[in-house]
Each structure stands twice: as C-alpha cells, then as structure tokens.
Amino acid sequence: MIAIGAPGFSDWQGSVVIYNKANFATASILFVDHNYDKDFNTIMGYSVAIGQFFYDKVNYIATGAPRSKETGSLASIGDLNYDGFKDIAVGAPYENEGHGAVYIYHGTRFGLSKNYIQRIAAADQLSAFKLRGFGLSIATGHDVDNNDYPDLLIGSYMSDKAVLLRSRPVMSIKLSIKFNLHKSSEEIAQIDLKNQNCQLNSILYSCFDVVYCLHLKGEYLPKIQNVIVSFEIDSKLKRRGFVKVDENKLHQFNREANVSTKSNQCLEPISIYLDVRFVVFKCFQTYNINNQPKTEDKLTPMSISLSAKLNKEEQKSEFCKECPILSNEASISRNLDFETGCGIDQHCTADLRLDVRSNLSFILQGLNTEFPLYVQITNKGENAYSTKLQLAIQPAIDVNQISSYCEEHIEHEMVKINCDINNPLEEEQSKEIFFLLGLSKLSSTTQSITVDANVTTPSKSFSLKCEYLNSNLPMLPEDLTSDDESEESDVEMGNLKMKEEKVSRREAKLNEDDFNANTTAEKEPMLKLVSMKKFLSFD
C-alpha cells in the first residue's frame, strides 16, 4: 500500500490518495467532508505517516494539516520506548506566535495516546536558537549517535535552520512491597502490637519489615542504574511508626541503591517500629482539652508509600546518549491493618454499659464538703477501641481527685472531664474510675448538681456508639436535719421521686469505705444516679 498526500484536493481542503501495490491503475481517495469539520480539513495530506499504532498490527494512516489548529507536519518516528508500538511526531510550526513546537505521541495497544507524551517548544527548550516555524518538516528513521534509539531532524524554515533531536534510552520502574515479620521471611497481613519483638535503647517496640523490590525495564540500558527510593511512613498519622536512620526516628527518608536492569531486585528490608505509647485509639471527642493534639488511632490502617527516581547527579551535565529517562512515575502505596481481635472482618462491634454512682443520696449544704463519684464502664460486645469517657458537671465545682488518664477543664460554667479508657476494653471487661469533687465553692442558692456522662467507641463501619446518662443530685439546706430525730420525707432525684429518711449529720458525712467497686451483687451503693439511659449513634 502506498499513501500519497494531496493537499490541494478540493480547493485546498486536502486528501490522501491510497494505491495498492498489486494494481496501480486504481486508487482510493481518503478525505473528510470539510463541511463536517471545517477547521480540521485545511490542506490535509500535507504530510502522511503510516504505522502500526494499535495492538492489531494493522497499518494505519495518520495525516497532517498545517493550517489546522495543531497539526502541520507529521512523521512516524519508530518505536521510541520499545513497547512494540510505533510512535509519531506532530509539528505545529505556527504555535507560540510562529515559533513552533513538536509533539510526541506514543502508540499503545489501544491506539495513539490521547495526550502528548512530550512537547518540545522552540520558544522554551530551544530559545537560544531563536527559531521560527519550528516543526514544519520532520525527518526520522536514523540513529545518528549509535545508541539504538531513533533520532529526529526538525526543520525551522523561517530561520533557515534544522535541529537534530537525539533520543535517549527509555526506562520504566515497577515497584513492589510486602510486609514480613522482623528478620523473617514470613509474610504478615496485620500488625500485632502485643508482639513487641524489637528493642531500641532498652525500649521494647512492636515492629515489622518492609521488603521492597524494583524491576527496571527497557532496551539497551546500562547494566547498573543508580536509583533513589523515597519512603513515607504513615503520612496521615505520623506518630504511630518510624524508621531508625542513624540516630534519628524518621517518617520520611530516602535510600540510594545501585540496581541491576532487566531483573527484579529486592533490596535490604527496612524495619518499622511502632511505639505503643502513641498507637492509641482516636475517637469522636466532644471536648478538646487544653487544645492538645488528638492522638492517633489504630483502627485506621498504616500506609507505606514508596516512589523511585533516577539519580540525576550520576548523569553528566552534557548530553548522555546512554543515560535513560523514566517513562512513568514509579510509585506504590500499601496499607497494613492492625490486629483488633474482632474476627475475620476486623470490624469491632462493642456494647458498652455505663453506670454512674455515688454513696451520697443528697448533699447537705454547709456539711458535705466533698462529693464522691464512681463511674463503671462495662463492655458486653467485642473489643472496644478508643474508648472515651466524658463527664459534664454543672455548676462548676472543684475536682479534688482525678485519675491520671483523665483531664478536666472549665467551660461555660461547668466542669468537663475527658478520660481515656483501657485500649482495648475487651469483652466482658469493666473499668471503674473514682472522682472526688469539692463543694466548698458552691453558692448557697445551688439546688442540685447535674452530671452528664457518656462513653464512646468506634463501632462497626467506624460509626460511633455512645451510652449516655443524665443525673441530678439534690442539695438540701442544712437546717433540714437534726442530730436526734429521724423522719421520712420526699426527695426529688432527677425524674425519680423516692422516700428518704432524714439522717443525722454524722450519717451524712462522706464515707468512701461504704463503696466497694469490686462488689455489685452483695452490696449496692446508697443511691444509683440514673434518670435517663439511651443509645446514640453518630454516622
């Protein structure tokens, strides 16, 4: 088959005439109705290229139209990247106010790439030559520097110059990673924080190894290539894991390696250490205490990202015909889940029960100076991670005693307390917390103390389950009691109305020994603060 451009056909709309070698007496005329696309059919056939641009190995015709928006000259330039498909160069001599440019398109198994792979502009990369009309003509098919890659000769007719563009080897990098037990070939699918199998400076850590491999592919490449691999450990939650480089704990770092081409080469694994002090469980948090940063969670998988590039410092400043260029952005990212103990699906469905109690039925103003509060959280479901207890006590009172894993602050005339509970709070496990609240600063007009309590934990599909309690503790005037009389009276407790006996001053004083946190069946507290109990779900 012979294709001949006929740019003057049909009043210079242009066409391509195709002859069959077996019969030159007949010809087929290829042209597109210029009424359909007036801008495209302008001197079509000025340049013609034939090549196998698709996977079917059939020859296709590409033609240029110098008065169209983009194409002027056009040439099949061979297989620049040695992927088995022919590539083309398209000249645009009138682009950039007449300076011109050349576009490179790769052939693929689906045809020519929709977007250009490279743009060579006379006004940018070749500005020193002061070219005009660059790209009107393209000559190809010759390897002038003997590196086995075809080179291009581009005409710049308005400058009376021709520019030789030499090609360099094209290389691709394929990355792969897997996770192994530390110093073992056994692959892991989850991180087990209970297995603290690494030690740094006398501190035990849970750790695992990242095994990463590079496959450099291309034709006529140097046998060894210097590559820089960039690592990013847990980009969103950087405190959970680190890599020890010299004496530093890093989340981002580079490694340089000499890699053999045309083979899958695995490099020395890197060890990632997880500090369990920071691998705690982030959950919905109503109150931000002292503007401290929120801690990271372990229900979110840990991400490990790698990217690779050629070490350009190893390449010479002048043109290096053997030095390859990358045809792709080499990167990979994988996630590694944490072991949660919640079955195969790794989704934990907890069932939390909240119990708030005190051994005071009421408070006598002027007599009771402290108010004990006991909170018990029980999990009846699967492991509860990132369990948080939140208390809001109104009016604002002093906190005389608080657990080391709780913090309090004053906000809007109320005390807010946040506590981190066991991580995890396992099935059928309970956690009890004691608070001692001071009453010395209460106003004499205060009628009750309100305690709002809720406990939250991530549940299945990462929604939040919350158990909520609201209770009121009445304040009774001091003259309500006497030392020698005992009568019955009605006492309001939230929404509950119950019979209470008037008690003496001695009986109303705080006695913490009356509360046994480990016994619920044999000995109940004097009063269980419950008036409302319900589940809330936050999506």
Automatic annotation (TrEMBL):
<dbReference type="GO" id="GO:0009897">
    <property type="term" value="C:external side of plasma membrane"/>
</dbReference>
<keyword id="KW-0677">Repeat</keyword>
<dbReference type="Pfam" id="PF08441">
    <property type="entry name" value="Integrin_A_Ig_1"/>
</dbReference>
<dbReference type="InterPro" id="IPR000413">
    <property type="entry name" value="Integrin_alpha"/>
</dbReference>
<dbReference type="GO" id="GO:0007160">
    <property type="term" value="P:cell-matrix adhesion"/>
</dbReference>
<comment type="similarity">
    <text>Belongs to the integrin alpha chain family.</text>
</comment>
<keyword id="KW-0675">Receptor</keyword>
<feature type="repeat" description="FG-GAP">
    <location>
        <begin position="57"/>
        <end position="114"/>
    </location>
</feature>
<feature type="repeat" description="FG-GAP">
    <location>
        <begin position="118"/>
        <end position="182"/>
    </location>
</feature>
<keyword id="KW-0401">Integrin</keyword>
<keyword id="KW-1133">Transmembrane helix</keyword>
<feature type="compositionally biased region" description="Acidic residues">
    <location>
        <begin position="480"/>
        <end position="491"/>
    </location>
</feature>
<dbReference type="GO" id="GO:0033627">
    <property type="term" value="P:cell adhesion mediated by integrin"/>
</dbReference>
<dbReference type="GO" id="GO:0007157">
    <property type="term" value="P:heterophilic cell-cell adhesion via plasma membrane cell adhesion molecules"/>
</dbReference>
<dbReference type="InterPro" id="IPR032695">
    <property type="entry name" value="Integrin_dom_sf"/>
</dbReference>
<keyword id="KW-0472">Membrane</keyword>
<dbReference type="GO" id="GO:0007229">
    <property type="term" value="P:integrin-mediated signaling pathway"/>
</dbReference>
<feature type="region of interest" description="Disordered">
    <location>
        <begin position="478"/>
        <end position="519"/>
    </location>
</feature>
<dbReference type="InterPro" id="IPR013519">
    <property type="entry name" value="Int_alpha_beta-p"/>
</dbReference>
<dbReference type="InterPro" id="IPR013649">
    <property type="entry name" value="Integrin_alpha_Ig-like_1"/>
</dbReference>
<feature type="compositionally biased region" description="Basic and acidic residues">
    <location>
        <begin position="497"/>
        <end position="512"/>
    </location>
</feature>
<keyword id="KW-0812">Transmembrane</keyword>
<feature type="domain" description="Integrin alpha first immunoglubulin-like">
    <location>
        <begin position="167"/>
        <end position="329"/>
    </location>
</feature>
<dbReference type="InterPro" id="IPR013517">
    <property type="entry name" value="FG-GAP"/>
</dbReference>
<protein>
    <submittedName>
        <fullName>Integrin alpha-4-like protein</fullName>
    </submittedName>
</protein>
<dbReference type="Pfam" id="PF20805">
    <property type="entry name" value="Integrin_A_Ig_2"/>
</dbReference>
<feature type="domain" description="Integrin alpha second immunoglobulin-like">
    <location>
        <begin position="342"/>
        <end position="461"/>
    </location>
</feature>
<dbReference type="InterPro" id="IPR048285">
    <property type="entry name" value="Integrin_alpha_Ig-like_2"/>
</dbReference>
<dbReference type="GO" id="GO:0048513">
    <property type="term" value="P:animal organ development"/>
</dbReference>
<dbReference type="GO" id="GO:0008305">
    <property type="term" value="C:integrin complex"/>
</dbReference>
<keyword id="KW-0732">Signal</keyword>
<keyword id="KW-0325">Glycoprotein</keyword>
<dbReference type="GO" id="GO:0005178">
    <property type="term" value="F:integrin binding"/>
</dbReference>
<dbReference type="InterPro" id="IPR028994">
    <property type="entry name" value="Integrin_alpha_N"/>
</dbReference>
<keyword id="KW-0130">Cell adhesion</keyword>
<dbReference type="Pfam" id="PF01839">
    <property type="entry name" value="FG-GAP"/>
</dbReference>
